[in-house]
Structure formats: C-alpha cells, structure tokens
Amino acid sequence: MLNLVLAFKTTRMTTQEIADKLVGYCRKGQFENAMSELYGENIVSIEPKGAPMEKVEGLKAVIQKAEFFDNMVEEFHGNEVSDPIVAENFFSCRMKMDATFKEGGRQSMEEICLYEVADGKIVKEEFFYTPSPQG
Questions:
Q1: Could you please report the per-residue DSSP string of 67-127?
Q2: Of 35, 64, 104, 105, which has the most beta carbons under 10 Å away?
Q3: Domain coordinates of the chain in residue numbers?
Q4: What is the band of 131 on the pLDDT scale with cuts at 50, 70, 90?
Q5: What's the CATH class of domain 2-128?
C-alpha cells in the first residue's frame, strides 16, 4: 500500500509539466482535452468585470462556459499561445485569438491567463483582457 502511495506522489505532474501540457493543447485548439485532463473538479474560473460569465465554479460549469463561448464564434482564424512562465504553484501565458463572432464580426483578442495548481490539477484560472461592449 505504501509503495502505491509513493508511486502516486512521484507520478503527479509538476506545475511546469501542467503548464507545458496546457500550452500544447491550447496551441492545437484542443481545449476540451486540456480541461478534462488538467482541471480539478472544483476549479474556479474568473473573467474580467463586464464579461458575460464573470465567475464560474466547478468543472461542469467551466465546460459550459467554454461551450457558451464556442457558440458565440462563427469561425476561428487562428490563435497564438506564449510559452508559460512558472513560479511555484502558479503559471501564466499570453493568448491571442483571431475569430469571427456571430455578433460583432471579426476580432483579434489578446489576454493574460493566470493559473493556480494544487494536487497536480489546475484549481483556478483567471483571464485579464478588456471585454468587448455587450449589447
């Protein structure tokens, strides 16, 4: 039993490994894979004030938020994701996306993404950008 516990502890991904995996998935547009593999069940996701969904809690809610965003997009034209910067249990990266929205037309969006890791999973994500005016 002790060997099993030790094996589990040694196989848990580090913050750097999680950051590298998340960036790899995002660069390929595989956001669902990132969420299902790297996010904790009780994750908290925070958007800037004025965004449609400023704060959601729980993996199911984060997945629904991603689906809500995908449904607003008519066509993706590309994205860029910087290499992660890691400090202890946190990492950040810059993401840039070019997309045509069903309402609002084609836009280029750029944001800073900050993630917190605990027990081998992402437990918090926070995005910093200027939201487009709604309405």
A1: HHHHHHEEEEEEEEEPPPEEETTEEEEEEEEEEEETTTEEEEEEEEEEEEEETTEEEEEEE
A2: 35
A3: 2-128
A4: confident
A5: alpha beta
